Amino acid sequence: MNAAALIEDAGFDVIEAADADEAIRHLETRRDIAVVFSDIEMPGGSMNGLKLIQAVRRRWPPVVLILASGRIAPLAADMPSDTVFLKKPYVENDLLNALQIAA
Question: What is the value of pTM for the model shown?
Answer without folding.
Answer: 0.92
